[in-house]
Design goal:
heterotrimer; A alpha/beta; B alpha/beta; C mainly alpha; A: 6-stranded mixed sheet; 5-stranded parallel sheet; C: mainly alpha; ABC transporter involved in vitamin B12 uptake, BtuC; two-stranded antiparallel ribbon; 14 helices; 71% helix; globular
Chain lengths: 315, 419, 374
Amino acid sequence: MGSKRTSSSVRRVWTVLGVVLTAIIAFSSGYLVASFTQNEAVGFSVVDDYGRTVTLDGIPDRIVSIAPTPTEILYSIGAGSLLVGVDNYSDFPEEARLLTKVGDAFELNTEMIIALKPDLVVCGDLVPRQLIQLGETQGIPYVILADRTVEAVFKTIRLAGIITGHVDEADQLAANLSERVNALTAKTLADGVSKPKVLVETWSWGTSISTFGPGSYGDDVIALAGGTNIAKYAASEYPMVESEFVIAQNPDVVVYTMSSTTKDAIIGRSGWENVTAVQQDHVYSIPDDLISRYGARLIDGLEQLAVTIHPELFP
Amino acid sequence: MKFEVRNLSYSFGDKKVLRNISFEAADGEFLGLIGPNGSGKTTLLRCMTNYLETPEDRILINGKPLQSLMPMELARTFAVVPQSSSTDFVFSAYDIVMMGRIPHMASRIAGHRKSDVEIVRAAMEKTDTLRFASRPFFALSGGERQRVIIARAIAQQPQGLLLDEPTVYLDINGQFEIMDLIKKLNREEGISVVAVLHDVNMAARYCDRIALLSQGHLEAIGEPKEVLTPEIIRSVYGVDVVVRKDPFTNAIYVMPHSTVTVAHTHGTRVHLLCGGGTGGPVMKALLDEGFSVSSGVLNVLDSDYQNAEDLHIATVAEAPFAPIGDSAHTENLKLINSSSAVIISPFPVGPGNLKNLEAAKSAVKTGKKVFVLPPEAGKGIDFVGGKADATVKELIRSGAIQVDSIEDLLVRLSRGGGG
Amino acid sequence: MLRVGPLSASTTESMGTEYQRIVRRRILILSVLPIVLFVTVIVGTFIGTTGPIGPGIRTATGEIQRISFEDAVDAILHGHGNWPFDYHAIFWTQRIPRVLLAVLVGASLACAGTAMQAVFRNPMADPFIVGVSSGASVGAVAATLSGLAAFAVVGTFLTPLLAFCTALLTVFVVYRLGTVKGKVYVDTLLLSGVAMAAFLGAIVSSLIYFARQEFHRVIFWLLGSLSMQSWTADAILALTVGVGVLVIFLYSRDLNALLLGEETAHNLGTDPEALKTIMLIVAAVMTSAAVAFTGVIGFIGLIIPHMMRIVVGADHRVLVPASTLAGAIFLVWADAIARTVISPNTLPVGIVTAMCGGPFFLYLLRRSRVEGEK
């Protein structure tokens, strides 16, 4: 008699579970259908840097940026006035620091974002889950502005122009930057110009060095600046490599970000004495932002890097 | 190894565990420490091993303060055997015994010398543990582990052994094995022993002297027969016991006789005709019911005489090996007359005590209530050629009541068996 | 049936042949381990991104360049040669000091772990149990995230120095919490260690949170890495490990007795209180020094002693040297893997120790269980 009772109560549990599961499936599929149909709205659509199609009701009046480079990009095309909120790390240009802070990509202050009533959020590679949720629950769209190559920087700037209505400024800026790059590469990528081996170091821990690997914009910048990235065949975009690797590749030029270390530290590294860059005193620093922000300033960085690598081309 | 304990007190925080204890354990002596739970025996032992810190000069070993000796020196003077030992780590029995050589190692890096191995081997032989020397310690039984620990103690080559209830987790043959072994070491090798024992009779059997602790006080110390008296045991343990002598070892042993607290005695006295040990259970049952009891006539060598003595029952006695004499018989009749009822236990009747049945006959004649308990099945009580059986039959014909059992007897007595 | 036995063969003739088998096995293992370590060091020196044992590097032209065995030997033994890059520097500034660091750190963690498991009579004890890892983390993370570590001279040693200090400070606090009137209560000590770890862990988390955009800087520390290698580090650790292992080994017998319980250890003539204190100090210094350079490399201090206990038994006179050697061997191999598995990228070695070691230990455990039940 006991087993009969057990089996009937087990059956009851399964029934309840089945009902609940069906309800969940029904609700979510209905919701998904609804949200799809909702996207057939007015306004215009853009494809952002991650290939996402984002539909906007119109040119946004109020934009929140949750990463420093998108902030920079918007200001550089004159759309800075549209910004109502930025993240903690948006520090360029100076005006950006005065805007309301909404947290950062690690820890978004979603309440603040909602309070600011933005029409659009722009972000970089880091897309926090909270941002996705904001999109679903509040209907706030977000556009990802991120690039992997210098060429893509122009594309991103143009995209920023489209979504802010500053198309002309964006195109102008992109054209200017493109011109600068072309002028540069005319010299650096000309026939017969050497391609010195370059290490661009972003930070280090003991003998482990962080640099730019294949597929990163840093790699592209080095190539355009007329250098050969010694980490060109590393295993990832932002690899940590050992000093052994650096010694073996024997770079002609070492460039390090200003905040990460000092020239003396690099020159003094054990085993680096016979590295060409150290022997010939070709160890240079570069401001962090010029190599870590992929907006207009990246071109500044590219130019500085080119001068560093090919001083003979830029007397 | 000689211990002197002088005015030792010990407290755990506020709790006083030992109060002003003083005694000596002489060299070569087997001293037992006994007492109820919580009396402080283990604490006392721990003070003696210097595991618990005590003020200087309270405990002297071989005349010197305990604290003046280095730990290694102490370990060479005495060895400690705890209640039980276990370890999760994989050590063989041999490894465990070899640890007993630690106090004798020349230096930290010294290896085992041949002499160490020989001592360990001899110790294990003495304790019959050689055969599992390479088995892991945790895989041995409780008794085997204790033997290994004792082997380790022996390997320490101590002057004395301190044991803390060494047999409490052993079964009965294990217990005697261990105690016999310890006694042997004490006798044959002159190793002093101070042992905390939970079993009073074991202490009586093995110890030269016993120290009895109660609530931190040293209640008594001396030979077993001096310490284990019914009065002392009642005052310390709260149990009524009789003290007997083990017929084979001559050691004394205590036997609790009454676990019942008599609610009230109702003053009714019954007289018990008994003998040959048959009266013991009846006496106890009657006393537990609250009756007061007298008995007779009992020969002083009769075990029922001893029983009556132990239970403080008034008895008419007769000299060893003598038949019941006239004066004894008269005394018996007096007691019968002044009692409310007479009870006859199924005692063996011989020519010497036939008169007890005669006394019963006169009791019946005077109208006294007489109860007859049946003998055990198959056990005859008649050793006078049929006279006893006949007398009993006559008694019953004349009005004596045959009961089925002691319980039956008590029932009938309570139904107003007095008269 | 599981059989164990004593150490020295020559003294056990009277005990029967079953001992001799076990004793011979222990002697064999103890004499093989140093050889294995020696071979491991040699091989480990030859393993690396640039070879001879390794994938080699891809130069700008796309060709693969690898150091040949002859050239490697040449580079190690002689200073100069006609090489495309500085072979000598590769071996003498990268490989050899790093392999030596692995030897020293692996040895100290395993040895300290053995001692801690005896002191706490707890198989889950490891050398970090009294707060070394959490304490060191505070110092290392603070030094790194403050940016001070970026400055030369001061910077290179700031992180290890601060980590070492905070580690020892933490151990001191935990020790004081667990000691009453000179008596060390290991249970209290354990709980204090856990509490401190929780508290300091919160501090470390806060530091990381407030400098979270720089979080990547401390990830190597937190996961454990041998990248902070240098001859100076090797020299310092050679001292701490040398002294530490020696002291712990000298107390092997006491540790054996301690495993049977503090009271028994006392009754056998040892001083459990002094023993616990000395072991804690020595293990703490040894571990703190190691952790100061490498961060928290987990697993070695916990599992290596267990593994060796299964293999050679619980007698510390054998176990301590065995664990020490095994720990060294293990870390050299783990680091060799960390340096080459995704070459030219490098992994923090702590990832490798955890991933490789766990399954192997489970296998060994299962085998010993099955054997024990027979």
